[in-house]
Structure to design on (308 residues):
């Protein structure tokens, strides 16, 4: 594994290795054990989109690993003023040991990896959010065990979270039901690739418009904001389209009695989820948030520890 651009690029062994490293590094933090595995390394963190969890978890994680995190806002570097991705990749490869980028276009992430000579981590694009989904699957595994025996239901927008859930679940053999309104389905290429993955892994993939059917007997229920960054002008329209896709107590009764609720945050109570669910005993959203730190440290170690 030279980069993390998409879970679809990963083998099942690499995914399991991320989980193994995550468990080990989380244990080190809880024990207070020093683990400076990236001592002397520098991670450049390019942000074209604002962030809470991504910035703090990567920056803290790199510090805990003994390395140096370098925050690079698009307002502070020349890529925000029109410098090509090609030139940026070439220059940064001469200075630092790895790049994490949180941006709009998936092509920017892929070009950084193509033109540079250092590992690139996709911290989020409009298409995919692989770090988040690896974290989510690790969180479920901590509480539920073997992922292949479980069903995850996602209700809401067919966005980067839903796309990456398709890749993650189809790779590891976990059943996945996605319910979206018509016209807000997942990316067609992602769906095609995921269905091919599922043939090999045995994952059961359902793409639906009915949230009740999706949540039926689910072990995990997941949702995300209805209005992602850059979609603020569509807020009123989206609220109207998604109003029947709220995760609430009425929908929750169709899931397993011991089901987990997940949300990648930020959450908007009263819209995609009610307070009774996200703040109730079924909610594991803050375990998710914490695990971003441990899983992303695992990814950095796997990509950067022995990189020249």
């Amino acid at each position: 594994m030279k980069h993390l651009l998409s879970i679809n690029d990963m083998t099942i062994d690499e995914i399991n290795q991320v989980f193994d490293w995550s468990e080990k590094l989380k244990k080190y933090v809880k024990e207070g054990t020093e683990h400076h595995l990236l001592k002397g390394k520098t991670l450049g963190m390019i942000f074209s989109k604002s962030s809470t969890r991504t910035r703090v978890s990567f920056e803290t994680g790199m510090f805990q690993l003994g390395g140096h995190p370098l925050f690079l806002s698009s307002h502070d570097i020349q890529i925000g003023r029109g410098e090509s991705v090609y030139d940026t990749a070439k220059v940064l490869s001469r200075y630092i040991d790895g790049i994490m980028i949180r941006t709009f276009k998936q092509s920017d992430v892929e070009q950084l990896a193509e033109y540079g000579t250092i590992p690139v981590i996709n911290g989020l694009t409009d298409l995919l959010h692989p770090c988040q989904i690896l974290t989510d699957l690790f969180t479920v595994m901590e509480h539920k065990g073997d992922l292949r025996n479980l069903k995850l239901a996602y209700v809401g927008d067919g966005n980067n979270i839903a796309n990456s859930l398709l890749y993650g679940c189809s790779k590891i053999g976990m059943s996945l039901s996605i319910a979206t309104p018509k016209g807000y389905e997942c990316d067609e290429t992602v769906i095609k690739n995921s269905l091919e993955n599922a043939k090999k892994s045995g994952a059961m993939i359902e793409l639906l418009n009915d949230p009740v059917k999706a949540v039926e007997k689910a072990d995990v229920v997941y949702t995300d904001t209805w209005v992602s960054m850059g979609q603020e002008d569509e807020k009123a329209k989206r609220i109207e389209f998604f109003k029947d896709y709220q995760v609430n107590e009425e929908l929750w009764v169709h899931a397993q009695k011991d089901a987990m609720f997940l949300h990648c945050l930020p959450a908007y109570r009263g819209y995609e989820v009610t307070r009774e669910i996200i703040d109730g005993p079924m909610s594991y959203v803050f375990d998710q948030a914490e695990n971003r730190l441990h899983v992303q440290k695992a990814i950095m170690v796997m990509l950067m520890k022995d990189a020249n």
